[in-house]
Amino acid sequence: MSDYNFAYLDEQTKRMIRRAILKGLAVPGYQVPFASREMPMPYGWGTGGVQVSAATLTPDDTFKVIDQGADDTTNAVSIRKFFENTAGVAVTEETEKATVIQTRHRIPEAELNEDQILVYQVPIPEPLRFLEPRETETRKMHSLEEYGLMHVKLYEDISQHGDIATAYAYPVMVSDRYVMDPSPIPKFDNPKLEMSAIQLFGAGREQRIYAVPPHTKVVSLDFEDYPFEASKADHPCDLCAAEDSYLDEVILDDAGNRMFVCSDTDYCRSRRAAGHVGRLGTELGTEDAA
Amino acid sequence: MYVAVKGGEKAIDNAHAWLAEERRGDTSVAELSVAQIREQLSLAVNRVMTEGSLFDPDLAALAIKQSRGDLIEAVFLIRAYRTTLPRFGATLPVDTGGMACDRRISATFKDAPGGQVLGPTFDYTHRLLDFKLAAEGEVVPVETGAPRCGPTPHITEFLQGEDIIQREPESDAVPGDLTREPMEFPSNRALRLQSLTRGDEGFILGMAYSTQRGYARNHAFVGELRIGKVPVEMEIPELGFAIEIGELELTECETVNQFQGSKTEPPQFTRGYGLVFGQSERKSIAMALVDRALRWKELGEDNLGAAAQDEEFVLSHSDNIQATGFLEHIKLPHYVDFQSELELVRKLRREAEERLKGEFTAQEAAE
Question: Which of A49, A69, A204, A262 is an active site residue?
Answer without folding.
Answer: A262
